[in-house]
Every structure is written in structure tokens, then in C-alpha cells.
Design brief:
mainly beta; Methylamine Dehydrogenase, Chain H; about 0% helix
């Protein structure tokens, strides 16, 4: 039986960093791996059709990828942070040079592409969208693809688990497929009792989080065992787990709150106000010190996992 989250705490104060630049709702966010000098990056997908790359710890704008002719639903960085892949309503997924912003290749589809990620290596791309199919493309052969799986409803999200070397795809209904890229074929299927709002992976790819209805669920990717199942009193839009699996960020469909919860117990630690629209996505930085949220209000906000500590632009005067 699912446990019930304690949501009785009032909202508290935290100074978040607001990252402007988008003109329409921000629908998906992703942090990169840590590279030299402990740097990492944040990429955002937006309905304005112009994904933005930022410094991950400060939110400073680094560049905009220009070339899509429709809303961009998904944006991810490669493991080496040198490339980005985006999925769009213009029926394409595109791979970009993340340093120069140059478009490298475009993968044509027959319908809206809702999600894309690098799969296996920086040469393989996995996509999913309105045509209900999960496809694998080779950057060197963009005119050909392999259908890895088919859902019964449009595909909402595709993720690559580097831990298991498998693709994870979720549809607009209640099904999550674990896909073996070597076959390719569906190795395992997970079911939810409510329609899926979002899925996310921990930084190591070992734990899968899912927001569905008024529930937050988490599976161990090795055993496919459901390890957490929390009930809440609101419709959940997103759930993301930090790298150490101690904290979880949860957003609601109809309110503006950002909730930080204990992952073991589901107990709400804090709730923050800041966005002026519903929260569409959330993700943790690779070091777990920061999490980002994207909203209907067109902004990205950065929040501290441990408010009051010095990190990035959060520097405090010592008296």
C-alpha cells in the first residue's frame, strides 16, 4: 500500500535565482555531467522553440540553439557535454554542437517529437513522440532509424539509463517500457494506476521516479522493484530525486509550490513560492547542491538543496 506524504508544513523562504530568456512556458530541464574545474551546465526546452544553455551553478546564459520551427519539448546534453539533442513540434529531433550552437544533423519524423536523448554513445539518439513509437537513430545515418518499441498512446518521455544501458520510455497513459538497446526490444514493463505526468532518473541512472495522478513512485532499475510509493493531496506534475537519494523535489499541476521532501519517509521538509505559473519540470545538479525548476511563467529558477550555505552566486556576508 502506498504511504501518505506529510504536507502540513507552511511554505518557507528561500532566495532562488531567476533565469530569464524564454518567452513561453519552460517544459523540460536537464543538467550535464560535471566537467573540468567542477563546472556543469543546464539546458532548457521551451515552447518558444529556442533551447537555452546556461552555466549550471549560476544560471548565466551561455547560448541559444536557433533552428527549430516549432515548440521544443525536450533538450538533453551528451555525456561529454559537447553535443545537445532537442525534440520539437516541427517533426524533427536535432543534434547540435553545444559549444558553437551549430546544427549538426536533423532527424525527420512523421509527427511531433516529444522527447529525445543520447543512447549508448554520443552517436546514437533515441526519440519518442505522438506517433507512439520509440526510435533509435545513428548520427552518421540520419535517414534511417530502428523502431525499438511501440506504445498504445503517444510517448511522453524517453530516458537513457547509463547504469543498465537501457532506454526507458513512458507514454501519456500508464505504461513505462524498459528497452534493451541491443535487441532492441522491451525487456520489462512497469504500470501505474494513473496517467503519467513525468519520469526522471537519478544522476547514476539507478533509480526511476514517476509522477502519476496524486502519487509519487520510484523503482530500482536493477530489480525493477517499486521502492517508494507516496500518496499526496494534489495532482503531481513532476518528481525528481537527488544523487544521494535523500531528497526529492515535487511539483504540482494546479499550484505554484516547489516542495522538498525526505526521500525515505516522504515527509515534506519545505515548500517554496517563486514561480508565477505551474511547475512543469525539475531536476538536480550532478553534485546535488542545486535543483532547477521550469514553469508555465517562462522562467527557470535555481534553488539550493541546503538553503543558507554558500554555493555559486549564493554568497553571504559574515558579520
Amino acid at each position: 500500500m502506498p504511504s501518505t506524504m506529510n504536507n502540513s508544513l507552511p511554505f518557507t523562504q528561500q532566495v532562488s535565482l531567476t533565469c530569464a530568456g524564454h518567452t513561453r512556458p519552460v517544459v523540460q530541464l536537464s543538467f550535464s555531467n560535471i566537467i573540468a574545474n567542477n563546472r556543469y551546465f543546464l539546458i532548457s526546452a521551451c515552447k518558444d522553440g529556442k533551447p537555452i544553455l546556461r552555466d549550471g551553478s549560476t544560471g548565466d546564459w551561455l547560448g541559444t540553439f536557433v533552428g527549430h520551427k516549432g515548440a521544443v519539448w525536450s533538450a538533453m546534453l551528451s555525456s561529454d557535454t559537447l553535443r545537445a539533442v532537442t525534440a520539437s513540434a516541427d517533426y524533427t529531433a536535432k543534434v547540435w554542437n553545444a559549444i558553437t550552437g551549430q546544427e549538426l544533423v536533423s532527424f525527420m519524423h512523421d509527427n511531433i517529437v516529444k522527447s529525445a536523448d543520447f543512447a549508448g554513445s554520443n552517436e546514437l539518439i533515441v526519440t519518442g513522440g505522438q506517433d507512439k513509437s520509440v526510435r533509435i537513430f545513428d548520427v552518421n545515418r540520419p535517414d534511417k532509424s530502428i523502431t525499438a518499441a511501440c506504445h498504445t498512446t503517444p510517448v511522453r518521455s524517453v530516458k537513457w539509463s547509463k547504469h543498465r544501458n537501457m532506454i526507458i520510455s513512458a507514454d501519456n497513459g500508464r505504461q513505462i517500457n524498459i528497452i534493451d538497446i541491443r535487441a532492441p526490444s522491451v525487456a520489462h514493463t512497469l504500470e501505474t494506476s494513473d496517467n503519467i505526468a513525468s519520469i526522471s532518473l537519478t544522476a547514476d541512472g539507478k533509480t526511476l521516479a514517476c509522477a502519476a495522478g496524486k502519487r509519487v513512485l520510484a523503482w530500482d532499475i536493477d530489480s525493477f522493484k517499486l521502492v517508494k510509493d507516496f500518496n499526496v493531496d494534489y495532482e503531481v506534475s513532476v518528481a525528481a530525486i537527488n544523487p544521494t537519494r535523500t531528497r526529492m523535489v515535487v511539483g504540482g499541476r494546479s499550484d505554484l509550490l516547489i516542495r522538498c521532501c525526505n526521500f525515505d519517509t516522504g515527509k515534506q521538509i519545505d515548500a517554496y513560492k517563486g514561480h508565477h505559473g505551474s511547475v512543469h519540470d525539475a531536476c538536480f545538479s550532478p553534485d546535488g547542491q542545486v535543483y532547477a525548476t521550469g514553469s508555465e511563467d517562462g522562467t527557470v529558477r535555481l534553488w539550493q538543496t541546503n538553503p543558507g550555505s554558500e554555493y555559486g552566486l549564493w554568497q553571504y556576508r559574515h558579520i
